[in-house]
Specification:
Elements: H1 3-21, H2 23-30, E1 34-39, E2 42-47, H3 50-71, E3 77-82, H4 109-112, H5 125-128, H6 145-156, E4 166-170, H7 176-193, E5 201-205, H8 206-218, H9 222-230, E6 234-238, H10 247-262, E7 266-271, H11 282-288, E8 292-296, H12 301-315, H13 321-330, H14 335-352, H15 358-364, H16 366-373, H17 378-389, H18 403-419, H19 424-430, H20 436-452, H21 454-468
Parallel strand pairs: 2-3, 4-7, 4-8, 5-6, 6-7
Antiparallel strand pairs: 1-2
Helix pairs in contact: 1-2, 1-3, 6-7, 8-9, 12-13, 12-14, 17-18, 18-20, 19-20, 20-21
The structure holds adenosine-5'-diphosphate (ADP) and magnesium ion (MG).
């Protein structure tokens, strides 16, 4: 492919995205992408860290594909990769504990991010919060009513005794982020109505917290970072389970946490585990658990149905009750998927001007329903992976640590996380009662290896396809 043309096309795509996404989002995530090459039908884009790569890939991957296709139909694959500087030698033993490394901040962070957002602390809430995630938009049912009530309470009266910190936990896609944003929206609204000065928020994921903190260390601005964190009225940290490993970030979080609670500021934290199950220092766990701990339980059929009904009414599209019942029955994993399915149906109906029927549902959601139908089991994964690597299935749960069996075991753990909805502890139990941190370690190891070793990555992909077919 002509590199001059490719570069020009890339320019156009970036300009387009900048308009689509707005400046803040563009500068925060996309400006650091480098066009690394184009060969055959493949374009390679490069990002400085794995965290950024995954983030960009999740959020914008599909958009990149589409825009490239528009610009240049001969581009069939857009590969996002991490720019490796040095590749560390692979440790020989698999028996070590979790070695989660926080993402390396790009060196250019300070220049490329908007000044007011340099440390990721923004007061312009609108940019950071999802406008759909309000209390009004949250459907309450048995599994989430307690968490909802707690969130409401905090929004009405922040820093109330017994509600600080508010710790929300539950599985993926059950509404943790939604409730956190709802608190922020509601607090802002109340404040405005009362004519008070705006509430100062910080909302960020734990991963981003680490990322910002490390960036601050690098640019010698930790004091500034701390001061800004301590200057807020409400601190919200989403997905705290990612705050692991690094002592100094935990330490910093702990101090900030204590400082804010003592100063009467509200803290809201979400996580996929309860405080005691988190991989954190004991004193931090204790601290996290000493306010209100509220969990979001897995959805029931009734809740799923009422979420679908509410969302269909909101969308203003008539969806027959039969179809909603069918979806609520079939898609049980999480609300995000449920929502995605409904949106797809509605989009399809709008696009083709067809009524939504049960037949149309089967047709449009064919792949999704199939995936939900055919639940892959961990046993199946262990069997396939053992076969593939020529080891005994019993070695999946044996205590042997030789690389020969440890590596396939890690691959099987990785695939179990990817292909089933089992939690880390559940997966660990299936692999000879191993600890969930071992599973976590396996996943990050496999990720790492896949990045470094193309053959290994292909192997894992092949296994995944085999299992999914
Ligand atoms: P989590 O942070 O727990 O992974 P999210 O808060 O991101 O989950 O929720 C995933 C999606 O499902 C969001 O679009 C959210 O609006 C929606 N959702 C989750 N629970 C509810 C609910 N009870 N009512 C309405 N929408 C919900
Ligand atoms: Mg979330």
């Amino acid at each position: 492919m002509d590199s001059v043309q490719i570069a020009a096309q890339w320019e156009r795509i970036l300009r387009r995205l900048r308009i689509e996404l707005g400046d803040i989002e563009y500068r925060a995530w996309l400006q650091q992408i480098v066009l690394a090459g184009a060969e055959g039908d493949e374009v390679t884009l490069q990002l400085p860290t794995r965290f950024l790569r995954d983030w960009v890939s999740d959020r914008y991957g599909a958009r990149f594909d589409a825009l490239w296709k528009q610009e240049n139909p001969s581009v069939l694959r857009v590969v996002l990769r991490v720019a490796h500087t040095a590749v560390a030698a692979m440790p020989h033993d698999d028996a070590v504990g979790p070695t989660f490394e926080p993402p390396e901040p790009p060196k250019v962070a300070a220049e490329t991010v908007a000044p007011d957002d340099r440390l990721g602390l923004r007061s312009d809430l609108a940019a950071a919060l999802d406008p759909r995630f309000t209390f009004d938009g949250f459907v309450v049912g048995k599994p989430n009513e307690f968490a909802y009530a707690c969130a409401r309470r905090v929004a009405e009266q922040p820093s109330a005794h017994g509600f600080n910190p508010l710790f929300l936990y539950g599985g993926v896609g059950l509404g943790k982020t939604h409730l956190m944003h709802a608190i922020a929206w509601e607090l802002t609204r109340r404040n405005e109505t009362a004519g008070q000065k705006p509430v100062l928020f910080t909302y960020m994921s734990a991963e981003k917290f680490m990322y910002r903190f490390i960036a601050a260390i690098r640019s010698h601005s930790t004091m500034e970072f701390k001061e800004q964190l301590r200057g807020v009225d409400v601190l919200m940290i989403d997905d705290l389970q990612f705050l692991i490993g690094k002592d100094n970030t935990q330490e910093e979080f702990f101090h900030t946490f204590n400082y804010l609670v003592e100063a009467g500021k509200q803290i809201v934290v979400s996580s996929d585990k309860s405080p005691s199950d988190l991989q954190l220092e004991d004193r931090l766990k204790t601290r996290l658990g000493c306010g209100m701990v509220a969990d979001l339980h897995t959805t029931t059929y009734e809740l799923r149905l009422s979420i679908l009904e509410t969302k269909a009414v909101r969308a203003g599209v008539p969806v027959p009750p039969k179809v909603l019942e069918y979806l609520a029955h079939k898609i049980t994993s999480n609300v995000r998927e449920l929502e995605g399915a409904l949106n797809r149906l509605i989009a399809h109906a709008n696009l083709f001007g067809r009524a939504i029927t049960l037949e149309a549902t089967h047709e449009v959601l064919h792949d999704l329903l199939k995936a939900n139908d055919r639940r892959i089991s961990i046993d199946e994964i262990q069997k396939k992976v053992s076969e593939h690597y020529g080891i005994r299935v019993s070695d999946m749960s044996s205590a042997r640590r030789a690389r020969l069996v440890a590596r396939p075991r890690q691959v099987a753990m990785y695939l179990s996380k990817q292909l089933t909805s089992r939690s880390l502890p559940e997966i660990g139990r299936k692999f000879g009662n191993r600890d969930h941190t071992t599973v976590m370690h396996a996943i990050s190891r496999v990720n790492e290896l896949m990045e470094r070793d193309g053959t290994f990555a292909e192997d894992v992909e092949l296994l995944r396809r085999l299992l999914e077919s």
